[in-house]
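Chapter summary example: a protein plus adenosine-5'-diphosphate.
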Amino acid sequence: MGIDLTSPVTADVLSEPVQFLKGAGPERAALLARLELTTVRDLLWYLPRDVLDLTDVCEVQKLTSDKVHTVRGEVVEMDGRQIAGGRSLSAVLLNSDGQFVRGLWFNQSWILQKFRPGQIVLFSGKPKKHAGRWEFSHPRVQYLDEDDPNATGGILCRYGLTEGLRMWEIRRIIRDAVERCAGAVPERLPESFRAANALPQIGEALRQLHLPKSMDEYNAGRRRLLFDDLLDFQIALAVRRRMWKTQEDAPKLPTTAKIDARIRRLFPFTLTDGQNQAVREITADLASGKAMHRLLQADVGAGKTAVAVYGMLVAVAAGWQTVMMAPTEVLANQHWEMIDAALRESRVNRRLLTGSLTAAQRRKTLDEIARGEVSLVVGTQAVIQQGVKFAKLGLAVIDEQHKFGVEQRAHFSMTEAAVSPHVLVMTATPIPRSLCLTQFGDLDITIIKDLPPGRQKIVTGRITGTAARTRAWDFIRKQLRAGRQAYVVCPRIEEKVEDSAEYVAPSAEQVYRRLSTDELRDFRVALIHGQMDRVQKSEVMESFRSGETQVLVSTTVIEVGVDVPNATLMAIMQAERFGLSQLHQLRGRVGRGKFQGYCFLFSEADSAEAVKRLHVLESTTDGFEIAEADFEIRGPGDVLGTRQHGDLPLKVANIVRDRELLVEARDAAFQLVDSGEIDQPEFLPVKFDVLDRFGRLMDLPQSG
Ligand code: ADP
Ligand code: MG
């Protein structure tokens, strides 16, 4: 059993400063410190960014045209020219031990910039013989570093460097670390668990990773390190979920047939199958006596609100309070209006709590909430601010919470904290599975797959060039004249970079001025943006909702949830600047009524990525598919709606690149926790690691 973990010898070796390694010394240690590599342990866990595979390097005489070969040679000549059909041909000639081979590229003239004479490179691909010379068409190219031109075989790891540090130097230092210390790394996973998950022993894994004899070894070693990283995180989530399930007592909120009928009568429609299924899952949780922590996922417009309101009314019927928190004031107002209208005939005491209440109104409302006189509250983040205490909160609904990380889930206060409230989190738009498993990995998940009947496909097109733009505005004017309404959405205002010719996005204000004096001068156009005060904002929204305003120019204030059925036109300026899920969300704002909806993606960007991304939107309306594509192309930041990607507490794993492994680690982690195996003494080292890294994450939110 691996408890010799704490043996001082072991700990010492791994915590030793890097400068005592062969080839390091104080100077290189200082360079390594810039890469945050200060101890032997840091070095051992420093993942190569890629590898140079020289195992299959072949002599030119032995090339054949039937399989993939790799040749190694020195760049002697580069040549680019135009050929028939307006195409370009780029060629790079290599000297490989006195024999010449050529690499060829069509229509990729930029490739020549990546070569210079004298450089040592590898070409891999299926060669063809042409006029007595072997040619590789579009070969995979590997550049041997200046320092490794003599490398002739094997697999060489390549690490991220810093100015002044050379590849062979860091390689030598890491080699020494591995050879002297990898064997001393304590194994924290029991043998049976490793066997079940095909994981090499840790010391061996580190050797395989940094000093691989084959690509299989490299991949196996690397997999072990990534798996460990993901495993700890998923165990933390699984433990958190288990604590909720077993320890958090919550009010029992049963749904009787009578309550069910009363609630359904309040909706002006019948629930879809997907909504009914969601209601069943939620009501089962509410009746269980253990706190619900559930994520409700569905595409835009699937009708999450009705499902949430159903649950809220179950709580009220059982004599408990309930609250719905929305991310913006516009949305809080809208939910409030919908709920308020539905409850007009009822005696449910309800309040809207946002930042626009006067101090006196706010004090009164908080009093009523604390005394339990109010049963239902709708609000913004104002509902979780200091001073808001519920007498007996049964269910909290958090709408569109995908902007929060797993560590910052909202916390509601109660005056008496004998029980915890049930919590339902809703996301604005589908989340890719692997992101869901990390960001919301501790929650139970409900997915609504269907949409209410009669939903139409929004006609979507990318608008590029003057002619297309003219036609688009013509079309928009025609629709407006027919009585429809339009949104025009502009990207966030970007700061102009000093001394840079970089294109600066026109602000919503500029677009508003232009449209109201030019393209749309015959129509009533209004502007809404984040810097306006609340009163102004809700006035503008009101005027758009009532039809008074025909065109609403905005930043992404309207991104989430706004519902105006007569709006059928969504024009998005510089669409390439938005995340795909965000565009999908915006598109979901139109075509909600009986008229056909249209989405115009104005974009002059011609990069392959931009075109590919916008094409995804033109070709599918499935939000789950779009989310996956967005995630693959741009990573989690966009999908989460945050700028920074580093939200996730992982050391070496990356949830885009390693998403398959993530699922494996998750299954293993949840199996360990749910079966109780994790509580066996042999898993103690893992538990310590998890606590050490994620203790904070696992702290249950305390009520009160
Ligand atoms: P989202 O899931 O995007 O939050 P909403 O809850 O805002 O969607 O619902 C979108 C629209 O669909 C609203 O106008 C709502 O009244 C309507 N709706 C919801 N459920 C149904 C249903 N079962 N049948 C018809 N319309 C529905
Ligand atoms: Mg919504």
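Key point: The chain has four domains: 1-53+153-185, 56-152, 257-448, 459-620.
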